[in-house]
Amino acid sequence: MTDTIFIKGLVIHARHGVMDHETEVGQRFVIDIELFADRLSRGANWDALKLFLQEWASEQSVAEVYAAAQHRRIPFAPVSTMGDLLASPHLKARGFFATLDVAGARVTVPGAPYKLSATPWAIRRPAPRLGEHTADVFREVGLDA
Q1: 22, 65, 104, 132: which is deepest, by most CB within 10 A?
Q2: What is the dihedral of CA 114, 115, 116, 119, to 10 degrees?
Q3: Which of 53, 13, 9, 8 has its CA nearest to residue 34?
Q4: Domain assignment of residue 145, yes or no
Q5: What single string gives the DSSP state of each residue in 92-112?
């Protein structure tokens, strides 16, 4: 299936031309146009295509637009909120998020962006809290905290 708009047999009567009888009597034109057949024609007709896409997308959920794009092999990704990411079946299935104890509270944090079998990734400790190592750094460079 291709996503194409065809205009076939559009009849236009125009009064123009080089010869006198062409401007007096006019000429009949029959036009066949194929729009959006390939990426070049979609780009050339973007203003028209944009109107169709906006109307269609306004009637779809984000998941439906994503699924339609994936089905047609169109590179597309939704802009996700943190809630969307935490609920993502894909990220859950690959064990992306890790849970840590931070100052007595359980906190969910992003995990490894990729997984390697020979060098498994692990969080050794949480990120430092604001100012946690300031005194140590100052001491290393010879300053008073």
Answers
A1: 65
A2: 100
A3: 8
A4: yes
A5: HHTT-EEEEEETTEEEEEE--
> Is 71 contained in some domain?
no
- The boundaries of the domain holding residue 20 are 1-61
- Residue 46 inside a domain? The answer is yes
Residue 68: inside a domain: no
Are 104 and 57 within one domain?
no
Take residue 28 and report the two structure tokens written for it: 């009949």
d(CA 68, CA 74): 9
Distance of alpha carbon 1 from alpha carbon 10, whole angstroms: 24
- DSSP secondary-structure letter at 59? T
- Tens of pLDDT, residue by residue, the chain (145 residues): 456 666 777 777 777 767 776 667 777 788 777 778 788 888 888 998 898 889 989 999 988 999 999 998 888 888 999 999 999 999 999 889 988 888 889 989 898 888 888 988 888 888 888 999 999 999 999 998 6
Owner of token pair 């944009």: 50
Q: Cα separation of 101 and 125, whole Å?
A: 9
Number of domains observed in the structure of the chain:
2
